[in-house]
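Sharing a chain and its predicted structure for anyone who wants a worked example. Both blocks are below, sequence first, tokens second.
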Amino acid sequence: MTSVAVAEFALLEESFEPNIRDYTKIIHGYAKQSRLQDAENALQAMKNRGFECDQVTLTALIHMYSKAGNFYLAKDTFEEMKLLGLPLDNRAYGSMVMAYIRAGMLKEGETLLREMESQQVYAKSEVYKAMLRAYSMSGDSLGAQRTFDAIQIAGIIPDVKICAVLINAYVTAGQSQEACVAFENMRKAGILPNDKCIGLMLDVYQKDNKLKEVMDFLMGLERDGIMIGKEASEKLARWFKDLGVVEEVECVLRDYSSMEVLQIGD
């Protein structure tokens, strides 16, 4: 029997005198299982017994509503915590920021992140990454760059995946030069590009029809001992095939003997 089931059973016993922590435990358990109605019923039962909501209970509810996409319930609960003067930790703040992100209200979520940072409270890396990804997918390069900067201020060291999301923001926004700068900054930081990053740079060169530049780019990767993966190789092959320069792509890819052989011209 799970701890939630034990708590449910105990609360039904007439002889059992629950305290607020018992209710908090069961509400938290329901929230983790996304059992919204059960959590709300337990919350009402707690209030009927004269108990006031505490920080742990309301934080669990914000997280539950946020995860379920119930933005307004998450916001109302968050505001209730503020009105009660309860401390807001990175879990409560983070869950509310995620609620904004899921609702497509990125600017509001970013404002809340700034509010957190002003109080020396920093969200978990997953929250920053979700914000960065949302800006990137919408092609809002300014928002993506602000979030990328905030990630570093929060003491999170960007890895290749985070850098790829930033580069994608510039590519999606059609800002080729800025995408190249972001790629070069990543390389200067000693981060090896993954296939996603390389594929994005190929998108940049293809968009601007820069054949010579892409050849230089690929030769530079080869000099640094960086192998291009299947996705980027196939993207490159399709582009070169469309241009009718099969010999060039075969020359470029010849040194990547460990890769899957591409049938360009089939």
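Comments welcome. Residues 256-266 have pLDDT under 50 and may be disordered.
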